[in-house]
Each structure stands twice: as structure tokens, then as C-alpha cells.
Amino acid sequence: MADTNRSVIVVILLIAGIVSGYYLTQFGLIYPAIAVVFVYQIVRLLRRNSGRTGQSVCVLVLGDIGRSPRMQYHAISLSKHGYTVSFVGFLGTKPHQDVLGNERIKIVPISELRGLSAGPKILRYVTKVILQSLQLFYALLKIDTPSYILMQNPPGLPGIAVTWLVCSLRGSKFIIDWHNYGYTIMALSHGEKHPIVRVAKWYEKFFGRYSHHNLCVTNAMKDDLQTNWSIKATTLYDKPPLMFKEAPLETRHSLFMRLSALHAPFKSRGESPTDGVERTAFTQRDGGAVTLTEERPALLMSSTSWTEDEDFSILLKALEDYEGFVEGGATLPSLVCVITGKGPQKEHYRSLIDRLQLKHVQICTPWLEAEDYPVLLGSADLGVCLHKSSSGLDLPMKVVDMFGCCLPVCAIHFQCLHELVKHEENGLIFKDSQELAEQLKALLSDFPSTEGRLALFRKNLRFSGQPRWDESWDQTVLPLLAADGI
């Protein structure tokens, strides 16, 4: 029966390759050789042993590997337990060194294809999906036969269907790691009733049921998958790896010195550079040990993908209100607000930032290397999260990282945020810019004192005993693999 199913699938793929190649050629998009290569790969696959390699796993993300921390953590955890990992995704941002330097992890790069550059929008989208499908088929058929393909969703189009077909062909097991729903992200741009959004929702629901195992990021998503889509999932909360921790003063100073050469808010203010003292806005080294400067500003941290599910105008308005508090005579520290990340709306918000006229608040938007980001979080005084889940069912990993560094957080409210942020225990939850501004004022009113609410939140995080990624992964994912006897 399995051989019959596999034969049927192969025939379908052969036909799909030939038809796709024909139409792509008609549009002048691609040489006919791509269709030939696609068909050749499937024929070649028929001649290969389809048996699974017990210690081989493919980790797949149709996105930038370097900006997919959870999937990088999966790959590292798998390698620690003896699996060889083929890590398939886009090579844009540099991945973490623990991935690049791992002999058991091999990165298999694929390109972010764009389809037609002209013509109706729907046609451009369809051609992009077809091209991405062909490329993904080729990549997944080229690697050694894995026991599992572990795929991130979203993005799931066309990855879920393609991965399911490849798993059926090669006898691999299919695991989906649900970070969110792709259709809800699309709805932010197109609206819930748009035909593309409706098709995307049907697609995720239909093909998602063909996975062998499912992971998800919250209990709320687990319940939603079961209730509305009849998909049984296991909750694997995002947890910080050991690299996220409070940074020692020496490490902070070293990072601040490097950043001060690139970003003005990190430069020291007013002191002579010829007195032999290394200074930044926050730290100084006078011969030996590093100390914090007495009149240092508070360091406010946020990170973002600069997408539509994060409205940074809320933070900018709150910072304007904070400026007003200081101008009005409130005893508050100056602020350095650092917003890290890359994404489509970054230039839009940078133009808004450039128009602000602030004396007591400085804002910079650097891109940090993977090794520097945990250090900066571990050096900050307060974190801010503007992530507002498109589905209301996922949690912001940036807050997880902040908590790993014992960094208290002000986070914008949404449906299941309470699974992570405990109001008045490890941070505060706000609903608008005015409430955020009042929280910044209240938390920083006694800065840099080691007493007060901000210090209490940090103390609670230090003694929370939260598990790290390795421990959580070993308790949650490893039993799933062991149950399959692979």
C-alpha cells in the first residue's frame, strides 16, 4: 500500500514538474532546464534507497536562518543528541556561531524567489509560489534522507504541502513547529475576508493535519489547534539559552566601547578624551576595574522585525510624553532607547524618529551580531515589547530573551500574554502610549537606585528558577523522538 501511494505521488510530481516548466517557459521566467532538473531529481530519487537515516534530521525555515533563533536552537539541540542536521533556509543574516561552528550542522541555502516583476498581483504571487515549490523540492530531495523534517510555520506556503509530499516520498516523519498562523499575518495587510487570506487559512488547516507531530509556542495555540483544526500539538515554550544572562561590567564596557564608535548615544558626555580614562555613556575604566558612571542615562531596550504586528508609534509617543515629564520638572534620568532588528518598516520608523525633537531621550536603531545581542540585553535597565500577536496565540521571543537576562519588561497587552508576563511580578502590561509613558515614569523615578519596583522585578526574575532551552527541549521534544524509536 505504501509503495502504491508513493508511486501515485511520484506521478503527480512528475506531471506538476512538466506542467510548471511549460508555463514558466511561456512567461519567459526561467529556462526549461529547471523543469528538466526537477523531473530528473524525482527519477533519481526512485533509484535511491528511501530508507531513513536514523540519526539525520532536516530543519526547515522558509526565511532567514540568522533571524530564526528558535529553529537555530532546535538544530543545536538535535546536534547535542547525536543527530546530523541539514539546516535549510535563506542565508541573509549571519547565524549564531554555535550553528556555524557545529560539525553536525550543515546549512543548505535556498534563495528567496520573487516571481514575476510585472503583471497582475495575483499572477506574481502564484509564480512566486510555483518557483519556491520547485526550489524547495530540489533542496529536500538533494539532502540525505532524514528521519524527520522539522519545519517552522509560518511561513507555511508552499512549505507545508511540499514538505509533506517529500516526507511521503522518502519515508520521513513530518513535524511542524507552529509559531503562529500564516493567514493571520497576511490578514494584517489584506483583511480577513480577502480571497488570498481565505485560501491561506484553508491551506494551513488542510495540510497541517498531515504532519506526524506538532509543536507550538503556547497552551492557547495548542487548544486552538485541537478545537478548531483537530490538530494535536505539544507546547514547547520559548526559553532562553544560557547565552542570555546578566552581563558582567567588563563585558558591558567592551560592547559599549565598540558601539560608541558607531552610535552617538553610547559616547561619553562632556569628559576630556585625553585623561587616559576609557569612557562610554554608561561605564568607565580608569586604569583597572570598570565602574558605572554616576550620571548615566537609563538604557531602554526593544527589538523588532519591523513588521505590521508591532506598532512602534506607541513607543515613540510614550518617549515624547517622557520628555514632557522631564521638561515639566520630574526627577527622571535621561534615556537611551535602543531598538534592534531588521525589517520592511524600519525606514518608515527611522524617518519618524529623525523628526522627533527630544533633549533628554536619544534613540538608535543598530543591527547587532548574534553574539552581541544577548550582551546588550544583559546590560539594559528596562525592556519594552510592542509585539501584538496577529492570532493572539503566540508569545514574543524577545521577552523570553529579556527574562533570561533578568531584564524587567513593559509589554503591550494581547490575549495570551499572561502565559509569559506576570503583571507587577516580572514586568508591567500596558494598552496604549499614555499608559506606557506613566509606567516608564514610575519605574525610572528612583533610577539608578537598587530599591523600588524595577529592582523588585529584576530580583523576582533572578529567583524565578525558569528552565533554560536545553532543559525544556530535552523534556518536551526528546520524548517525541524516542517514542518513534528513531
From TrEMBL:
Asked whether the UniProt record includes Transport among its keywords, one would answer: no
Q: Where in the cell is it found?
A: Endoplasmic reticulum membrane
Please state what the protein is called. Answer: Chitobiosyldiphosphodolichol beta-mannosyltransferase
The UniProt function text for this chain reads:
Mannosyltransferase that operates in the biosynthetic pathway of dolichol-linked oligosaccharides, the glycan precursors employed in protein asparagine (N)-glycosylation. The assembly of dolichol-linked oligosaccharides begins on the cytosolic side of the endoplasmic reticulum membrane and finishes in its lumen. The sequential addition of sugars to dolichol pyrophosphate produces dolichol-linked oligosaccharides containing fourteen sugars, including two GlcNAcs, nine mannoses and three glucoses.
Q: Which UniProt keywords apply?
A: Endoplasmic reticulum, Glycosyltransferase, Membrane, Phosphoprotein, Signal-anchor, Transferase, Transmembrane, Transmembrane helix
SUPFAM superfamilies, from UniProt?
UDP-Glycosyltransferase/glycogen phosphorylase (SSF53756)
The family line of this record is: Belongs to the glycosyltransferase group 1 family. Glycosyltransferase 33 subfamily.
Give residue ranges for domain Glycosyl transferase family.
299-446
